[in-house]
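Bit of a strange request maybe. I'm writing a small parser for structure token strings and I need a real example to test against, not something I typed by hand. Could someone generate the tokens for this chain?
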Amino acid sequence: MSITHLNRRLVSFGSQCISLATALGLAFLAGGCVTHSSGTNPAAATPGLAVLPAFTAADVPALGPAEIPVPPPAWKVSPPDTTLPGHGLRQHPMVYIGEGCNKIFVVNDGKVIWTYATGKGWEYDDVWLLSNGNVLFSRMQYAAEVTPQKQVVWHLDAPPGTEIHTVQPIGLDRVLLMENGKPAHLQVVNIKTGVVEVDHAIPDAGEGVHGEFRRVRMTAAGTYLLPFLELGKVVEYDKDFNEIWSYKIPSPWAAIRLHNGNTLISDEKDRLVREVSPHGETVWEYKLATDLPAGLQFKDSQSCVRLANGNTVLCSRGSNGAGCQLIEVTPDKQLVWALKDWTNLGPASAVQMLDDPGVPETPGDCQR
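Reply from user aminoacidic:
Good idea to test on real output. This should exercise your parser:
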């Protein structure tokens, strides 16, 4: 039994909910106050760019001690499509992962500069490049954090019968995760001590463990935003896990509380991303079936990112080589970037744009 789950048993069921001061204190203690990257806030910097040199340093091994090589891709590898809008891999420096390719990619100056492979099996769904240079990720069977030198500094296995698809850094010492299971458990784990500081059961999250959750986020206000993938709803809970907001949508893969107070939701089944107001009104929507220019194939859209310039990036598994992996659209739905590069990358489930401002470990600072 891992120390995490031993600690859970030691915490009485009645103390599963923490106070608002504690919830917000997690972010304060580990990474400063929870604020947005605007005005004179130091979060306006791009810490991801600052740490990129560490990934090409002389002490970075070709294969880390815990790495497992990934088999050759199952998709058809073809030259990158240079006829598409934008600048291909040069559009953004980024960290990139996807279901079906168990390798993390760091991209800069139009090329892959670093990878981390974890062998066969399902599946990457969440990834963060932290301001200290470490990479935090979920791998369904476990969550982990590795250095640019590919040293594992934290690892948490999902217990039998459970899955971990979502992780979020809360400062540099704590990680929020959702453990899909019967019941599911939302947790905040202190990765330095192994203590589970928040552990709340979600008893009704769907019939199957695999389809319960893909994304969970703590907001800048210290609330919890949960997209119930199988149950077709997004629910926000306060510090005591009382429901304070909800929105119905067929298959919410991800939900992001934006700086403007609205919520950006990706709907995998309906192939769209929708921004809704606190009153549930649709204020912006991009439908892949009708808004994407003719001739572009973009299916199985999963997560999304709202950039500081107002553009939205959507990720796709790309139909195993047949379609694009990423697109970027403006608020008026103009396509400014479409990436189809199956030579260097695999499917896209999540991406972090490193030229976008925000401190990753400050909840709500990055709109992803």
